[in-house]
Design a protein that fits this description.
Elements lengths: L7 H9 L2 E6 L1 H4 L27 H7 L1 E9 L9 H18 L4 E3 L3 H10 L2 E8 L8 H9 L2 E5 L23 H13 L2 E3 L5 H10 L5 E2 L16 H9 L3 E4 L3 H4 L8 H15 L4 E3 L19 H10 L4 H20 L1
């Protein structure tokens, strides 16, 4: 196994760290008919090691990830009329996984849960929603989703919804709607993490002006390194840091380098360096987007390669405590402030 050939110091540090990946789309890969569109491939068995996709339970256990955030992504064909229905199907699948693997997975709703999971040798699993359409412009639904265990939500995907304009609607210069303002305030009140990945630039600035809570960009990189609308500008990164927020490095090649063929582990680390340079080490983490991307950077082919990220940080001269912050403590700091 390639991990055995890695320097023992690196492996021990990786094991000592509480590793957090703030975004994967694996739930969609695990859906079964009739909840799954027929155009998608046959679903994988999460409990079995697979050569397909990027994450399954055996590989996740090997990776050293301690807290995995599972995104309930709402595909465009379900929007807007069937968005809530689809999210409930995905949440049901999430709990089926927990029920099927109680010896390996523990549900996460507060930071103490990941600490308990580490003691028990389990992985903490946190539920997020990718796309605020699920709320159907009803704060009561938001509160009920929170009661179902949802602890984070991206306000938009790429399109416009009842909350804000998404990243693909940037031409309009539109930000949060009136309902969006109410929703951001309610998310802060009930202890749900506001995720600004995928939102329009104007929407980002509206969120910054509206909320007093820390925010995250669960899977977004640096626009100064790769000029893509899904990445954050330097101004955005500084404002996110001023809110004590964190951004998770996304492994999608198009967000890593404008020439996707140049997407490598080293190029991802260039994004880390940039965040640290302009905002400090406290505001960067991991948000792989595994199973939501077709291709991966060289050196980060699936979740088992996460230790290589740790190795790369050390080779670049990051001290052990800073590596521990990047691997997970930064996200845990934000989660602690918001949900306890």
């Amino acid at each position: 196994m390639w991990l055995r050939r890695m320097n023992q110091r690196i492996l021990e540090l990786h094991k000592r760290a509480t590793v957090v990946d703030a975004h994967i789309d694996t739930l969609l890969e695990l859906m079964v008919p009739p909840a799954r569109p027929t155009k998608l491939a046959t679903p994988r068995n999460f409990g079995e090691r697979s050569m397909k996709g990027h994450v399954d339970l055996p590989r996740l256990l090997e990776s050293g990830v301690d807290l995995q955030v599972f995104a309930a992504y709402i595909q465009p064909e379900y929007k807007i009329e069937r968005a809530l229905h689809r999210v409930l199907q995905l949440i049901d699948r999430f709990y089926q996984l927990l029920d099927a693997h109680p010896d390996k997975l523990l549900p996460f709703t507060r930071v103490a849960d990941v600490r308990e999971a580490e003691k028990q040798g389990k992985i903490a699993a946190m539920l997020s929603i990718e796309g605020g359409e699920a709320v159907e412009a009803d704060l009561g639904i938001l509160r009920m989703l929170h009661r179902l265990g949802v602890r984070a939500m991206t306000l938009t995907w790429n399109e416009r919804n009842q909350i804000a304009d998404g990243a693909a609607e940037g031409r309009t210069k539109g930000g949060l709607t009136n309902f969006g303002l109410e929703l951001v305030a309610e998310m802060s009140k009930i202890g749900m993490v506001i995720d600004v990945s995928h939102i329009s630039d104007a929407g980002f600035f509206d969120v910054i002006e509206t909320t007093k809570s820390p925010i995250i960009a669960s899977h977004s990189n640096c626009r100064a390194i790769c000029n893509h609308r899904r990445n954050l500008t330097d101004e955005m990164i500084k404002l996110l840091a001023k809110k004590d927020g964190v951004m998770g490095m996304n492994f999608a090649p198009a967000f890593v380098d404008e020439n996707k063929d140049n997407a490598t582990l080293e190029r991802v680390l260039d994004h880390v360096d940039h965040v640290v340079k302009i905002a400090s080490v406290e505001h960067v983490g991991l948000g792989s987007d595994f199973d939501g991307i077709e291709n991966t950077p060289k050196g980060l082919e699936d979740v088992t390669k996460i230790p290589s990220f740790t190795e790369g940080l050390l080779k670049r001269g990051y001290g052990e405590e800073d590596v521990i912050k990047i691997l997970g403590e930064n996200f845990l700091r934000v989660f602690k402030k918001i949900m306890g």
